[in-house]
Amino acid sequence: MPNAYDDIWDDTFWAAEAALLLAAMSPLLQAAALTAAKNAIASGVAWDLVNTAVLAWVKAYTEKVVEEITKTTAEGLAEALAAWIEQGGPLDDLVKSLEPIFGATRAERIAVTETTRAYAEGNKIAWKAGGVEKVRWFTVVDELVCAEICAPLHETVASIEDGFDYPDGPGIPPAHVACRCYIQPVVE
């Protein structure tokens, strides 16, 4: 079921999540299936036929299960983020709601990254509708600001349409995982 926040999700994040999960699960499922196949060899089936069939099954099954797990995880994140935005609570509330899905460390990193993305994208949509053509990048100006990407962008101006130039850009915040930067409209 689509919701109002569907257009803010970055598909590259979920593709990376799926790739990590696939890389972690494939060897485990392959080992389990091959062990079961070796035990079945006693029936007289040729090992090379079993091995080929097992590997084909593992590849197809793992891709399917990773797709479903990733989809379920994305839906859980979407629901938690939407509820948090609607309630207007502190970021710690969002982190706590994500901990059962991701664990404490990843929950915090995802909460920071995705709230940064949600507000930047939502503001961009609203500002463009209001005729804003340029935005200014701001960091939170503390010791945690990324020196390689974010610090050099602080107070720079870019087209709202084209965004800012950074390694995974051009775009708007977040520039990386746990990015806490934000943009403001430039009104002339």
What strand order characterises the main sheet?
2-1-3
Helix content: 55-70%
> How much is the radius of gyration in Å?
22 Å
Number of E strands? 3
Please mark out the parts with pLDDT under 50 across 5 or more consecutive residues, or reply none. 1-9
Distance between the termini: 41 Å
Strand content: 5-15%
Largest sheet, in brief, is:
3 strands, antiparallel
Please tell me about this protein's structure:
The chain has helices spanning 11-40, 47-87, 91-102, 104-129, 150-153; strands at 134-138, 157-159, 182-186. With 188 residues, it is mainly alpha-helical. A 3-stranded antiparallel beta sheet has the order 2-1-3. The longest helix has 41 residues, at 47-87. The model is unreliable at 1-9 (pLDDT under 50).
Give me some keywords for this one.
single chain, 188 residues
Write a short abstract of this structure.
60% of the residues lie in helices and 7% in strands.
Give the secondary structure arrangement, pairings included.
Layout: H1 11-40, H2 47-87, H3 91-102, H4 104-129, E1 134-138, H5 150-153, E2 157-159, E3 182-186
Helix pairs in contact: 1-2, 2-3, 3-4
